[in-house]
């Protein structure tokens, strides 16, 4: 059973993701917070990039996921789960709402998490915060003072003005929403990043969502039982214990876990293995249930859509998800505005039967190379009809082909030259119709019934090697048929063609 500890209810530190349009200052805000808050009272600061870090402000902690398009955030959204508790929507006060701002708003609303608007670049002469508030209202984001309850803070990542106010607003939202209220009994979380380190082996960054675990505990990550050989915090310092909302690094794992995978902690390897077996049985039961349409046995194409504008995104999503057939279906992992990026390729690589469909957006050369190296398919089109045709073509490839047998000849067996304990047999006979063909498949007929099937592995005519033997000619052949052939049997030679259905 899972490791449990009797603890009073606690409010764990909130986990925050920062989102917004490119160049509106997401990274600069995070950099300013990291430099001013992580370094306070600490020596060395952060020594490595691990995708998440923890700060402390007036005795209270916050964990930041430091990249808005983070792979785990996208992957967990596609599974209906949540990595972040609160989002910061960054909007440049001199530029206002842009396409990626709109996309970020959609993502935040779909994730159903509270958010704070950070109106950045307020120090610039061109800043027009009132105009931006109006543009946000057009996107149904009503901030405080404009008829809504969404907190808004005017900041400057360049000068640091009001960054503390932003942090305090986050903590206030966490307190009001009672974010992270938990008994803390079952230690569980999600894989944020993972890679193979040449010196340290399989390495993963984990975000502990609930509970507490210690170095002596055992983790079940996906379906793999792991012990903690190298256990560090986000600064690269050795740990013996981790608490809720902490980002941690594990190295020396037996395999590289998939980004977005969940994990749990257990007291022993036996307990972890027992839980894994129970989960596998539960999954088998779900797959066997006719009441589960998502696991009805049909192959599913996992789709990542990338589009130029939100209008295209919405139109394509509506049509693509409706492409469901008795033989095959699809599932939408991700649907975003913007160019194809590394996050998209990694998400596609983690799924079975996946493809990225790009509508009027670019795929940078480095991303094309990454896709090629990981076996990820990217299809780029400029017409919606062509995207839909491409989706159907790739779904068609998942339908098992119909195998059609075509008879090409018949022969009567007259003599048995060699028969071994294995399936190899050498026989002789005469072609009655059609032709015999080296490499052709055969059915052995006796009394009008098929007693065995094999392949012609060798063929001779008049003691010379032959590729084909025509009607009326005698032959000798070698076959791998496992059924013993006797004089008087008929060989039916055939070829097989795979007929693929097109949707």
From TrEMBL:
Entry GO MF terms: GTP binding; GTPase activity; translation initiation factor activity
UniProt feature, compositional bias: Basic and acidic residues: 274-290
Functional note: One of the essential components for the initiation of protein synthesis. Protects formylmethionyl-tRNA from spontaneous hydrolysis and promotes its binding to the 30S ribosomal subunits. Also involved in the hydrolysis of GTP during the formation of the 70S ribosomal complex.
Principal location listed in the UniProt entry: cytoplasm
Protein name (database record): Translation initiation factor IF-2
Lineage: superkingdom: Bacteria
Residue ranges that the Swiss-Prot or TrEMBL entry lists as coiled coil: none
Region described as Disordered: spans on this chain: 274-295
GO CC field: cytoplasm
Localisation per UniProt entry: Cytoplasm
Pfam families xref list: EF-G_D2 (PF22042), GTP_EFTU (PF00009), GTP_EFTU_D2 (PF03144), IF-2 (PF11987)
Location of the Tr-type G domain: 11-178
Keywords, in A-Z order: Cytoplasm, GTP-binding, Initiation factor, Nucleotide-binding, Protein biosynthesis
Family: Belongs to the TRAFAC class translation factor GTPase superfamily. Classic translation factor GTPase family. IF-2 subfamily.
Organism: Candidatus Sungbacteria bacterium RIFCSPHIGHO2_02_FULL_51_29
